[in-house]
Amino acid sequence: MSISSSAEDREVVTSAHSQERGATVAPITLSERSILGLALLRMFVGYLWFQQLFWKLPPDFKGLFPYIVRETKFTFIPGYRFVLQHTFLAGCISTSSTAGCTLFVPLAAGVWAAELIVSICLLFGVFTRLGAILSTVLALQLYIGLSTSEWYWTYGTIVLLGFALTTVPAGRRLGIDQWLAPWLKAAAVKSRSARWVSWLV
Amino acid sequence: MNTLLRGLYSGLMAGGIVGMLYFVDYGPGNDLHGVASWFAFDNKDSGRLIGFMLLIVLGGAFGLIFGALQGKREITISRAIATGLGLGVAWWVIFAFLVALVVGHLSLARLTLGSFLYPFTLCLVYGLLLGAIYFQSTVRKMI
């Protein structure tokens, strides 16, 4: 048995290393079936958010109120309860109704609008990545506030679904991004803002 | 495949996917009763199944219209999506609104943001799917 340090051996090792490096950076191309599967996943996640609009409809957004109250009880981040009590629940005189609340309706309208944007982005595949990022953020908020009150993977899964859709261009099939993407790519050559916006499709 | 058959295939696929979306709902599939009630076909036992079948049949019919509208022109993605969304709006106006009003005895007083937004959005989703699937089927043929 010998330990060789000849130039030839070093060459073989270098070649193997470069091949390994080459293998790890080789681009992965999604097949048509894979991207269609991801597009369907995107639509169902969008539909998940879409359905949640209907139990907290405007103008009073009443359905959201008990969940905000629950978040103040179950959040696992210190200080989050304080934030909710001084924003969504500011001025409220009871935990069972929105009576007296000064900021609840405008803030709840913001939540509802954000969920509507997520639904539209994911259902229609328009600015899909923007919708997926927003979905991840909204789901993270739910995870922070409610995960300890239920099976915690319920909210963890929604966070991960949003994150997964952030990483792939799922709107490029069965979505409006299929039309938007090449148009924005062409505009991105001349415009910096188009370059930024094109990242969101 | 000629444009009519391609449209029929795309419409059936799009109707089927929207039907599946309706199934992933409280109940499950409670809102399929709403589809059946457009034509006053709803009943407690088979209303959901009737609603599901209606989505597929209407999907196929609108797919045929889509195919007929294309003629022999070469389709582009923008035109496919625009035509599809247009037909989605037409579906809502004709069936979820006018037919539901006349045949299903839908009361205008009961029309709320929720009762408008839910079927309208799903009609648009159908239209988008119709256009996108139709376009996709022509791309495959070119390859």
Provide a concise account of the structure shown.
The complex is a heterodimer of chains A (201) and B (143). Chain A has 201 residues and is mainly α.
Description of the structure:
The complex is a heterodimer of chains A (201) and B (143). By secondary structure, chain A is mainly alpha-helical. Helix content of chain A is 64%, strand content 0%. Chain A is built from nine helices and no strands. Chain A has helices at residues 7-25, 32-51, 65-74, 80-85, 104-124, 128-146, 153-167, 177-188, 192-198. Chain A is elongated. Residues 1-6 of chain A have low confidence and may be disordered. Chain B contains five helices and no strands. With 143 residues, chain B is mainly α. Classes of the chains: A mainly alpha (201), B mainly alpha (143). Chains A and B meet through helix 2 and helix 5 of A and helix 4 and helix 5 of B.
Key attributes of the depicted protein:
heterodimer, A: 201 residues, mainly alpha, 9 helices, 0% strand, disordered N terminus, B: 143 residues, 5 helices, elongated
Number of helices of chain A: 9
What is the strand tally of chain B?
Answer: 0
Largest interface, by Cβ-Cβ below 8 angstroms: which chains and how many residues each?
A: A-B, 23 and 23 residues
Distance between the termini of chain B: 14 Å
Please tell me how large the radius of gyration of chain B is: 15 Å
Rg calculated over all Cα atoms of chain A:
24 Å
Topology, number of strands of chain A: 0
Q: Based on helices, strands and strand pairing, what is the structural class of chain A?
A: mainly alpha
Beta-strand percentage range of chain A: under 5%
What is the string of helix and strand elements of chain B?
HHHHH
Multimeric state? heterodimer
Structural class by sheet pairing and helices of chain B:
mainly alpha
When the domains of chain A are counted, the total is 1
Task: Characterize the largest beta sheet of chain A: strand count, sense, and whether it forms a barrel.
Answer: none
Helix fraction of chain A, binned, reads 55-70%
Described by the principal axes of the CA atoms, the overall outline of chain A is elongated
Summed up, the domain count of chain B is 1
Separation of the first and last Cα atoms of chain A: 58 Å
Morphology call of chain B: elongated
- What is the averaged pLDDT score of chain B? 92
Count of DSSP helices of chain B? 5
